[in-house]
Amino acid sequence: MRSLVVLPMAVAHEAAKYxxxxxxxxxxxxxxxxxxxxxxxxxxxxxxxMIVEGSQxxxxxxxxxxxxxxxxxxxxxxxxxxxxxxxxxxxxxxxxNVPGYCIEEVTDxxxxxxxxxxxxxxxxxxxxxxxxxxxxxxxxxxxxxIRPGIGRLRERTxxxxxxxxxxxxxxxxxxxFGLRIIAxxxxxxxxxxxxxxxxxxDWPTLLAESDFLSxxxxxxxxxxxxxxxxxxxxxxxxxxxxxxxxxGFVDExxxxxxxxxxxxxxxxxxxxxxxxxxxxxxxxxxNVICTGHYAFFSPESFEEQWRRPADEVTRVLRGExxxxxxxxxxxxRFVERWGDMRDSCA
Length: 346
Fold this sequence. Notes:
This protein is α/β, with parallel strands linked by helices and about 350 residues long. It folds into 2 domains: about 140 residues, NAD(P)-binding Rossmann-like Domain (Rossmann fold), CATH 3.40.50; about 190 residues, Rossmann fold (3-Layer(aba) Sandwich), CATH 3.40.50. The protein contains 14 helices and 12 strands. The strands form 2 sheets. The chain has a 7-stranded parallel β-sheet with strand order 8-7-6-9-10-11-12, sandwiched between helices. The radius of gyration is 23 Å and the shape is elongated.
């Protein structure tokens, strides 16, 4: 029986290379839109491998329990919260992600948002296009709009919520602008942070001392809406919140209230709770910048995002362990079901 790889979404862009790539291995490939769980089950129940794009359709326990032959679910993103990794481990299904594929893009984008907040670039651009220029007529209104938080960047404080690979790659870029950098991450020790010239602080200190607070943590049910009324009340009223991670970290109603009340100066968001947004009231505020989930993007990162999951599937089909397993507890059950890795593709 030939192996089958499936993609529960329309095949386009870089994924258009999949049919030929897998055909050259003697492997069948099928990709099509799957708007419901039942559609995913119908497509994937007899598949040996599945490649998934997280924003398309969560891969739930119900789906995973119906997968008869699947050995690997290979995600195209860094985050894998849309896949029930525990259910997959119970079935001996390996789950992989693509760690680090867009680190340069996300850190560049974060700095771009930080600088846009610091210098009020979007507001000034809009004012200039409306005819506002320098300190001429109408400048009082412009100055009032840009006043909260604008100022010299050097020696201000950048707070990082989460101190993993992306946050660490951001450090030298931020330090080049003379920023003091603090971070909050319970999974990182002070020595590791100090080696990078970063002060590790607790949650209240992160909120109280950050002029710019940028989110770079792994999203989980425990961190959902962590940035809420209490958090915004604890922040400086000149502070800017930057989110290039997951929209779910932020209670958007609380954020909007804080921005309207002047408890927070600005928010720069690449991600939102619901995407694409439909009538999200945050987008009507002058002190909100939104970039539509493009922080990850460059032609280079996009190619890598889709190539690496196919690489992981290829390894498993050839009897090799994949490189980026996020549920290593699945290995023992994998061997029980399929035998040693070299025998698993037989």
